[in-house]
């Protein structure tokens, strides 16, 4: 029996990725206090936040499967989450300029009788950025709802020299691994004939 996916996230990027691979889902936003996760270890942080989000959402029927995720940028042992303001965004982009940083996404998938948690890591290298590029970018709306103050899938792509790892992990969900893990929960992409 194919099960129904519940996305415990309000992230438009995660919604777009699930739509891209034709997995139908319903959104059920978690209501949590993220400030209770105080670790400065990026792997522990995304893992704990994914768990907190995913377990805060109620499974209402036994054919439902919850997926939750959290993404952070890590640079020089500092976690870069969503910037609070222009100054914060400027500091983040300036720090990442000309250097390599890591992006971590923690994912929780759970049903009534099964649960898995995994963390995906991607390395991203930025070109050296001019003051003008940084100032122009933070003047847009783009940085303020994204970990690390940039979106690799939009204008922030011009900063990226190279990546090592899953591109979609940087967008906010390592979709190919998520799809493979969801198969074990009987959640599949829609297909005209059979799920693959």
From TrEMBL:
PANTHER family: BIFUNCTIONAL DTTP/UTP PYROPHOSPHATASE/METHYLTRANSFERASE PROTEIN-RELATED, BIFUNCTIONAL DTTP_UTP PYROPHOSPHATASE_METHYLTRANSFERASE PROTEIN-RELATED. It comes from Oceanobacillus longus. Belongs to the Maf family. YhdE subfamily. Its main location: cytoplasm. Its EC number is 3.6.1.9. The active site is at 70 (proton acceptor). Its cofactor is a divalent metal cation. Nucleoside triphosphate pyrophosphatase that hydrolyzes dTTP and UTP. May have a dual role in cell division arrest and in preventing the incorporation of modified nucleotides into cellular nucleic acids. HAMAP family: Maf (MF_00528). InterPro entries: ITPase-like_fam (IPR029001), Maf-like (IPR003697). One of its GO terms (molecular function) is hydrolase activity. This is dTTP/UTP pyrophosphatase. Keywords: Cytoplasm, Hydrolase, Nucleotide metabolism. It catalyses: dTTP + H2O = dTMP + diphosphate + H(+); UTP + H2O = UMP + diphosphate + H(+). The record marks 13, 71, 153 as: Important for substrate specificity. It is found in: Cytoplasm.
């Amino acid at each position: 029996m194919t099960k129904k996916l519940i996305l415990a996230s309000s992230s438009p990027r995660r919604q777009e990725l699930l739509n891209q691979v034709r997995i139908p889902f319903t959104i059920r936003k978690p209501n949590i206090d993220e400030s209770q996760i105080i670790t400065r270890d990026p792997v522990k942080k995304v893992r704990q936040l994914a768990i907190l989000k995913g377990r805060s959402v109620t499974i209402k029927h036994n054919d439902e499967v919850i997926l939750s995720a959290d993404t952070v940028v890590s640079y020089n042992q500092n976690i870069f989450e969503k910037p609070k303001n222009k100054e914060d965004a400027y500091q983040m982009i300036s720090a990442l300029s000309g250097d390599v940083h890591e992006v971590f996404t923690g994912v929780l998938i759970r049903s009534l009788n099964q649960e898995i948690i995994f963390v995906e890591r991607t390395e991203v290298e930025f070109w050296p950025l001019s003051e003008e590029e940084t100032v122009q970018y933070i003047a847009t709306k783009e940085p303020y709802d994204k970990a690390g103050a940039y979106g690799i899938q939009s204008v922030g792509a011009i900063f990226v020299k190279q990546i090592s790892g899953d591109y979609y992990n940087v967008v906010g969900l390592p979709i190919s691994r998520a799809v493979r893990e969801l198969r074990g929960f009987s959640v599949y992409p829609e297909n005209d004939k059979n799920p693959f």
